[in-house]
Design a protein that fits this description.
By secondary structure, the protein is mainly alpha-helical. It has a domain at about 120-250: Serine Threonine Protein Phosphatase 5, Tetratricopeptide repeat (Alpha Horseshoe). About 75% of the residues lie in helices and about 0% in strands. The protein contains 12 helices and no strands. The chain has helices at about 10-20, 25-40, 45-55, 60-75, 80-95, 100-115, 125-135, 140-155, 160-175, 180-190, 200-220, 225-245. The radius of gyration is 19 Å and the shape is globular. The two termini are about 25 Å apart.
Length: about 250
C-alpha cells in the first residue's frame, strides 16, 4: 500500500484499528503500515501493529515495531508500559531462538525498572525467570516466581500480567504431576476468561496452548517415539482452540 494522502490519514487509522478489533490481522497490518508511511504511528498503534504482525507470521517486523514502542514509552517515562513491551520483545525473540538478543532486552528493562522501584509492572521481568525454571524442571520455583508476577499484576490492575503469571503457575502444577489442579488455573485464566478487549490475541494463543498441552497430559504420557505423535495431536488441538477463541480467522 502506497503513501496515503494526509487528509485520509485519520480515516485510514480508524480503518486499521477496526480491523485490529475485528481480528482481521492482514488488513490491520496493511492499514497500519499505510498510515505509518504518511505519519508515524502513536505508541498504542505501534503495539497494535506489532501484535498483528506477530499473528501473520512476520516476527522480525513485529520486533521492529515493538522496539519503536519501547523507545516511545521510555521517552514518555511510562516505565510500566515499557516493561510490558520489553517482555513481548523477549517473547518474540526467544520464540525465534534469538536467546542472547532476548536476554539483552530483559537486562535493559531491568536497568530501567531500577529507576522506578515502586512500579508493580516489574512483574513482567519475573516471567522469563519462571519460564526458565519450567524448562529446567524446577516446578516449585517456577510456581513461586510466577505467583509473584501475578501478584504484581493484581496490585496494578494489569490483566495480561495476571493471566500470564497464573497460567505459568498452572503449567508448573501440571509439571509436578498435579494435573487437575493445574488445569483449574489454566482454564480459569484462558482466553475465554476475559473479554476480548482485555486480552491480547497473541496472549490468548499462548494460554490456549498451555490448556491443550495440560489437557493432553491427562491422557498421554509421551515416551520415546510417541513424542512425535503427541506433538502432532497437540498442534491440531492448538489450532482448533485458536480458531474457536477467534485468535485466527478462517
Amino acid at each position: 500500500m502506497g503513501t496515503i494522502a494526509h487528509v485520509q490519514v485519520g480515516a485510514e487509522r480508524e480503518r486499521a484499528r477496526r480491523a485490529h478489533r475485528e481480528r482481521r490481522w492482514t488488513d490491520a497490518v496493511d492499514a497500519f503500515v499505510g498510515v505509518d508511511e504518511a505519519s508515524p504511528l502513536d505508541v498504542e498503534d505501534l503495539e497494535r501493529l506489532a501484535e498483528a504482525l506477530d499473528l501473520v507470521g512476520r516476527g522480525g517486523d513485529a520486533v521492529a515495531a515493538l522496539e519503536r514502542a519501547y523507545a516511545a514509552r521510555v521517552d514518555a517515562e511510562d516505565v510500566g508500559a515499557a516493561l510490558r513491551d520489553a517482555f513481548w520483545l523477549w517473547r518474540a525473540l526467544a520464540f525465534n531462538a534469538e536467546f542472547a538478543h532476548a536476554g539483552a532486552w530483559i537486562a535493559r528493562a531491568g536497568r530501567l525498572a531500577e529507576a522506578q522501584a515502586d512500579c508493580t509492572q516489574h512483574g513482567y521481568l519475573l516471567l522469563p525467570d519462571a519460564e526458565r525454571e519450567l524448562r529446567d524442571g524446577d516446578y516449585g520455583a517456577a510456581f513461586a516466581t510466577a505467583g509473584r508476577a501475578a501478584g504484581c499484576g493484581e496490585r496494578c490492575g494489569d490483566h495480561d500480567l495476571v493471566t500470564i503469571g497464573r497460567h505459568l503457575q498452572g503449567r508448573a502444577l501440571v509439571g509436578q504431576g498435579r494435573v487437575a489442579a493445574g488445569l483449574v488455573l489454566l482454564r480459569a485464566h484462558g482466553p475465554w476468561a476475559l473479554l476480548p478487549a482485555e486480552l491480547w490475541s497473541a496472549l490468548a494463543g499462548v494460554v490456549a496452548a498451555s490448556v491443550v498441552v495440560g489437557s493432553l497430559r491427562v491422557r498421554i504420557r509421551p515416551v520415546g517415539p510417541k513424542r512425535r505423535r503427541w506433538a502432532a495431536i497437540t498442534s491440531v488441538g492448538f489450532a482448533a482452540l485458536l480458531l474457536l477463541a477467534g485468535v485466527w480467522t478462517a
